[in-house]
Design a protein that fits this description.
Blueprint (H helix, E strand, L loop, with lengths): L2 H8 L11 H11 L6 E5 L5 H9 L4 E6 L2 H13 L6 E5 L11 E7 L8 H11 E14 L5 H7 L5 H10 L2 E8 L2 H21 L6 H19 L3 E10 L5
Helix pairs in contact: 1-8, 8-9
Bound molecules: S-adenosylmethionine.
Keywords: Methyltransferase, Transferase
Protein name: Class I SAM-dependent methyltransferase
Length: 247
């Protein structure tokens, strides 16, 4: 069982692969998509859940998603067919960094995928390249809510605190027009959904050759979360516009 198979099972009950509930996702999309006929790009779209939700509720929207996971792309394609939005969704199976488009986008999304570009600011720089005038960026990134342990840094990267994270975004020329800080409930719900789904699958498939690996992975991830980062890791989602240049 590879990482992609583990991830697919782990996200069975939480198709948004970030610690946000359905109402938060809905609100963030509302703030990024005020017209309903926008062109939307998701860099690191996973199984495309952000785009699928945006498309399902806005019949004049067009969307493109980029991800390196073949399994996630296949899942997105199938879900688009099931939800009847496949004619307005284009999926690119490739590195997000190398993605180019002749037409710009009104909203560029990148949630939980800044590692694809090597961090927050390089992700914003890439988003800027794809943005139409007056466009918005919806970015989701981790931050340290308290001083992290070395294990947490090794696991989740060298993040900053919330205020510093937002300061860095603002200093980079962006103005936050909406934001959401994942609640304790959203953070916990996401982890329980992931490692609970994986454990459930393992218990329900005792004869499957992957059952014992899945159970071990669920147990390891759950322990790492509880012991190493539950008390220190937070997640913020921001809807951003470009700050006007002043002479
Ligand atoms: C935590 S998931 C987030 C998925 C989605 N944004 C969401 O919130 O549901 C991170 C995604 O980034 C993708 N990814 C990682 N590195 C990438 C890269 N270099 N180029 C494109 N996608 C990448 C992974 O395959 C994965 O689907």
């Amino acid at each position: 069982m590879n990482r992609e198979q583990i991830s697919r099972i782990a996200h069975t009950d939480h198709p948004i692969k970030s610690p946000l509930n359905d109402a938060s996702v809905h609100r963030l999309l509302e703030h990024g998509l005020s017209r309903g006929d926008e062109r939307v790009l998701d860099l690191g779209c996973g199984s495309g859940e952000w785009l699928l939700r945006a498309l399902a509720t806005r019949p004049h929207l067009h969307a493109e998603g980029v991800d390196i996971s073949a399994a996630a792309m296949a899942q997105a394609r199938q879900a688009a067919r099931e939800r009847g939005v496949e004619d307005r969704l284009v999926l690119h199976h490739q590195e997000a960094e190398g993605f180019v488009s002749v037409q710009p986008f009104n909203l560029v999304i990148s949630v939980g995928a800044t590692h694809a570009f090597g961090g927050l600011l390089p992700t914003l720089a890439a988003a800027r390249e794809h943005l139409a005038p007056g466009g918005r960026v919806l970015i989701g990134e981790g931050f340290w809510d308290r001083t992290p342990s070395q294990e947490a840094i090794d696991m989740l990267g060298d993040l900053t605190d919330l205020a510093t994270t937002v300061d860095r975004v603002v200093a980079d020329g962006w103005t936050p027009i909406h934001g959401h800080i994942s609640t304790r409930h959203e953070l916990d719900d996401y982890e329980w959904a992931c490692w609970g789904s994986l454990a459930t699958w393992a218990l329900d498939h005792p004869a499957d050759p992957d059952s014992s690996q899945a159970l071990t992975a669920a147990s390891t991830h759950r322990t790492e979360w509880l012991r190493f980062y539950r008390d220190t890791w937070g997640f913020v989602s921001l809807v951003l516009g470009r700050t006007p240049d002043r002479p």
